[in-house]
Design brief:
By secondary structure, the protein is mostly beta strands. Helix content is 3%, strand content 42%. 18% of the residues are buried.
């Protein structure tokens, strides 16, 4: 499963247990109708956005012979996949995210441990 994305002319591949998130909207409107600038929203503890790319997950140690751990293993690296998927809307802890700019657009790299909530469009009830 390829959970990378293309931004401009570059393929973006996220490593480890991280998620690339594009912010929900650059401006936020209050209940009274005022638009808050982006700088006013920066102080929030929780932010939200759309998942653009997902890392492979948590690496799992191989089950091979451990009597000589310095020898390279012929087994491919296995990962425990993350719960989030490309296209999900996530709420995450703002202070844990790293802001980056790709092709002039603002994105956030969020560790999986900072994701608080996942909103998914195609929900399938358990059978």
């Amino acid at each position: 499963m390829d959970d990378s994305c293309v931004i401009g002319k570059k393929q973006v591949i996220v490593s480890g247990d991280r998620v690339l998130v594009s912010p929900a909207s650059p401006e936020e409107r209050t209940r009274s109708g005022l638009y808050l600038p982006e700088s006013a929203a920066d102080g929030r503890r929780v932010s939200g956005g759309w998942v653009e790319a997902v890392g492979p997950g948590y690496p799992v140690a191989s089950q091979t012979d451990t009597s000589e751990p310095w020898k390279p293993s012929s087994e491919p690296v296995r990962y425990i996949p993350l719960q989030v998927s490309k296209g999900d809307f996530v709420l995450y802890v703002s202070k844990s995210a790293w802001e980056i700019r790709l092709e002039g657009e603002k994105h956030f790299v969020v560790p999986n441990s900072a994701v608080l909530l996942i909103l998914r469009e195609e929900w399938q009830p358990a059978e």
